[in-house]
Amino acid sequence: MLKRRLIAILLAAAAPVAALAPVTNAVAAEQTESERLNAFFERVYQENIKRSPVAQSYLGIKTDYDKWDDESDANAIKEFEIAQKDLAEIRTFDTSKLDADAILSYRIFKSMMARRTAAFQYRRYGYVFDQMNGEQSSIPAFLINIHRVTSKSDAEAYVKRLQGVAALMDQHITEAREREKLGILPPKWVYPYIVSDAKNLLTGAPFDSSGKDSTLLEDFKAKVAKLDLPQTDKDKLVADASAALLASVKPAYEKVIALMTEQEARATNDDGAWKFPDGQAFYNERLKFHTTTDLTAKQIHDLGLSEVARIHGEMRKIMQQVGFKGSLQDFFAYMRDDPRFYYPNTDEGRKDYLAEANRLIGTVKAKLPDFFGTLPNAPLEVKQVEAFREKSAGKAFYQRPAPDGSRPGVYYVNLYNMRDMSKAELEALAYHEGLPGHHLQLAIATELKDVPKFRKFGGFTAYSEGWGLYTEELGKDMGFYQDPYSDFGRLQMELWRACRLVVDSGLHDKRWTREQAIQYLKDNTPNPEGDIVKAIERYIVYPGQATAYLVGKLEIMKLRSEARARLGDKFDIRAFHDAILKSGAVPLDILRENVTTATGGKV
């Protein structure tokens, strides 16, 4: 992912970028304190978006459509200084004069800024290039999935961005070298993934004479072909894109390959964040950042062990239900190895997987009104991860819709190796990433009315991923998982998240090796080895992030149990879900207050 754009995106929303009219003293005098605060949020929003061409594109805004963000560390420092001024300014508001919703916005904003402030000292601890969202794959993914072409000027902007890849990649390469000086170097096994991604992008025309178009040229041609332009104009655009690919993209990616080859020789096999300077403090910050709690690494580890034991017990009940004879490990091997639980590793098998995912989401959609008082308008698509990045990309992920309706929400599934995509997990995975999971939550947030725009796109991992995991179990309440093997798949995915607490803290706090973490998952889950290896490699490059799923889900389940006990027969699942979803993303302490108050409790 283009990492430094994330803060701008989190503070962004649907409105077009426009200069705000200056507020006169007379108008300011007439405003309430809440109105003044909301005007402040709007100004901060506008200023953030104006500084980020990438964020604008994500929002469907075509201002600065031919530009990239400034990814230098100097700009990161500048952005932080601006944020600190914003934080100082918000403290000047009189909270005693704010209405309830303005108080909520005030608290969320301060919480976001506090997390950003705590993270800033570790801004260089992330890997510029890695197998998950490294810049070698983020740049083409952005052009393919985000840069829409509906006019000649859009196509020309695409070409300009291709021409700008060389300078953009130079910034990333400079930053990667600087981070190495600080001792921030990916483990040795990461490098072949990055080199593979880079070489994949340089395969095909205009880079070679293989007879096929390269990934970006294929994308550009397909977009230009749909334009209502004379063929001569289309040919000129394609020729310009080809020239930019050769003059800018090719040398940029060759530099990446050279740097990765060079750094690989110096890299070690140490995997955890503990290897960094002040690594323990960094990991503690990551846990707090993602879970929005004060849970320690030890508490996270112990909670994971406890949950693994509980879920194993639930799994044994399904073993008895289907009449399986043998141990839980034997059942794991059966679920992992029997061909009945996988589609063929063929184009036809991939087509069947996508068709079943679409069918399940359609079935869920029909039942949503029984469980949700608020529903999104944005459509949802299920797509296969593109070939150029499928070898290194994660198992599944979601991309939220454009606020202006120009782009749907997309549930991506990685079908590179069908033996990593169990049929048993297919149902729960579709609920988590699609409906009623990430798509419902994020589309509702995008479409919220009368809230500051930063709240529509604010990000708290424990909230969003906790919701995704919660909806996997909610599917059971909705009457799904009729096949006991699919219900086992649901437990399998919950077990996966429980094991994450164990292996993430094991890797980054207890100094486990990659191999130790892989073995733990082999011993305690039914997942195939390829799935296990890819997961552990993800946790290594994203310290703490994977712990937020189960922490968030357990809090939502606890809140629901408390509300049901408090309200008895008056408990309304739709009202409960509204209490969670209609404020946008919030840290878990504020979520507890929101839900408790909405369901008749006292904070």
UniProtKB/TrEMBL annotation:
<dbReference type="Pfam" id="PF05960">
    <property type="entry name" value="DUF885"/>
</dbReference>
<feature type="signal peptide">
    <location>
        <begin position="1"/>
        <end position="28"/>
    </location>
</feature>
<dbReference type="InterPro" id="IPR010281">
    <property type="entry name" value="DUF885"/>
</dbReference>
<keyword id="KW-0732">Signal</keyword>
<protein>
    <submittedName>
        <fullName>DUF885 domain-containing protein</fullName>
    </submittedName>
</protein>
